[in-house]
Amino acid sequence: MGRVEGKVALVTGAASGIGLSAATLMAQEGAKVVLADLNEAAAQQAAARIREAGGQAQATTLNATERASVQAAVDFTAETFGGLNIMVNNVGGNRPDTDLDTLHITDEAWDFALLLNATATLYGCQAALPHLLAAGGGSIVNTASMAHRGGDLVRIGYTAGKAAVVAMTRSMAAQYGKQGVRCNSVSPGLVLTPAAEQHLPQAFKDMWSGYNAVPDVGRPDDIGYTILFLASDEARHITGQNIEVDGGHFVSQPTNPAMRVMYQQMAQQAQQE
Ligand SMILES: NC(=O)c1ccc[n+]([C@@H]2O[C@H](COP(=O)([O-])OP(=O)(O)OC[C@H]3O[C@@H](n4cnc5c(N)ncnc54)[C@H](O)[C@@H]3O)[C@@H](O)[C@H]2O)c1
């Protein structure tokens, strides 16, 4: 018996990275999964790989920023698998070149960040909720980001968009909890998706992991397993929460990396004396 056996799940942005991990893990645990993505060819390939491994999966095209497209993906899921129990609103991002600091972000970058993160999540929830309510309940999991928490030097639009996702998650949990719908978000820290693995300089990865409490930076499955848990009935008493999966990036004193160096220097000095 899988952890989400027999449930029907829709994952947005499922052709790559975190969404792909969540879709694959839920299929491994018995869910019937629809992978929805702007890159439909990649979503189809991913669904085929899941089927080859013995899971149940289909793919569909999606532009998460268009209400009609989101509705079509939800309709496709309900028609293909006979309902919907789990909605994972995972699409998000920004325009890195123009989503800058407060004085320099362009209006287009601001609008796009709110559209791709907050509004896309709203569209996903609006389309999914009638099915979840008709089924007597279900689970919504939204991908937020630790960017919503720490003050960032750039990405003012992205931070606002992800903060909106966390806030909406709490309100939706309050609004539909009595009808059996749980709604939670996951906030990843830096996650080495294939694109990040390829493009981020090693010096950046080393700098980042130096501030983590654990040795490594995150991998897609670190987030995928959290989404799987929140989607499953194991999390039946958890709603309105934002789970931070960041390797302890924010739990330490901010001065800890510098303190570590100081303690090492003090120890060396003591040995010499
Ligand atoms: N990777 C990280 O370090 C990190 C950290 C914090 C939060 N996140 C969040 O995790 C989520 C997934 O990111 P990822 O790193 O796995 O990205 P990714 O680039 O590996 O995958 C994103 C997928 O979304 C699809 N997509 C993009 N725009 C779309 C749209 N409008 N409609 C439908 N599909 C669309 C892409 O085609 C791609 O397949 C995002 O919300 C992101 O903000 C990522």
From TrEMBL:
Q: What UniProt keywords apply to this chain's record, in alphabetical order?
A: Oxidoreductase
- Looking at the keywords, is Oxidoreductase present? yes
Q: Which InterPro entries match?
A: NAD(P)-bd_dom_sf, Sc_DH/Rdtase_CS, SDR_fam
Q: Tell me the GO molecular function terms.
A: oxidoreductase activity
- Native species of this protein? Deinococcus radiophilus
Name of the molecule in the record: SDR family oxidoreductase
What family is this protein classified in? Belongs to the short-chain dehydrogenases/reductases (SDR) family.
